Amino acid sequence: MSVLTRIYLLVVGSASIAGEFSAFYPPIDILNYCRPWLLLASIPALILFLSRQASQTSRLAGLLIATVNLAYFFYPVLSNPAGPQDLEKTKPLKIIAFNVWHLNTSLERVADFLQKEEADVVLLQEMPSRNLKSLRRYLGNGYPFIHTCDCRNMVLLSRYPWEVAGGGQLTWAKPATIWARLTKPGRGSYRIVGVHTATPFYPEMHTNHTQWLATKLPRDERLIVAGDFNATPWSNRLISMTTKLELQRSATFQHTWPSHFLMPLFLIDNVFVSQTIKINHTRIGPDLGSDHRPVIVDLGMTG
Fold first, then answer.
1. Which of 108, 212, 241, 269 is deepest in the core (most CB within 10 A)?
2. Structural domains of the chain ordered from first start
3. What is residue 261's predicted lDDT score, i.e. its pLDDT?
4. For residue 297, what are the contacts with CB-CB under 8 A and spacing of at least 6?
């Protein structure tokens, strides 16, 4: 076994396995964020396993690395709870989640996009009051119901009124949230929750935020939870949260950030829904002047 092979197996193997221990040491969950790239990095390991010239140790190590990353890569999909199977009785509901970015100077483009999409409810993050004022002017009467709160510049736009609404500011213990409970004929009642968590560079704080969501969100209501989670689908913290709340994941293999690159590399803007809600289609919107791209989810709701 050459020195380069040893270094490769040590580095990639350690990175592939270490993420499993993020529950004990939160900073290394960042390795799980990069699971798709670790899977790409494990291709040489698979080649080693298939090579007859490689030593038995190299082949076994290569097989282990490839298997671990392949299993982790597909876990969010394989563990995703099943939604309702009866599609005939569902009625459509469209949701958009978008971190607009507080320095965005393309608010007219954002408004044009929202008008064309005609979503029922839109959850916006990083929308300070000065930008919201401009966006409202561009939108006109498209969204007559606008909920704001002291919750880190988050905004909820709706085409129809809510029964009750609220929100909370970001702290060390909990994320910024904005929420409303809505009822629409044929779609029943549901709670939609916008979320903006700490960045992964504050792993303990981010852990607090996902744990708060897992324990504080109501379990006796249908939930739509969406926003900037600052975590990819492979984050152990995010997997733990969705598992405890029994939420379906969407857009696992799509990407929203950073939008200014040739193509986004990570999905950190997520939409999760209760098992009683059908996810019909998920797609990522265009570059609209933010470092994020919007997530558009078409849902099927029953009354």
1. 269
2. 3-78 (no CATH), 91-301 (3.60.10.10)
3. 75
4. 94, 95, 96, 97, 226, 250, 251, 271, 273, 279, 281, 282
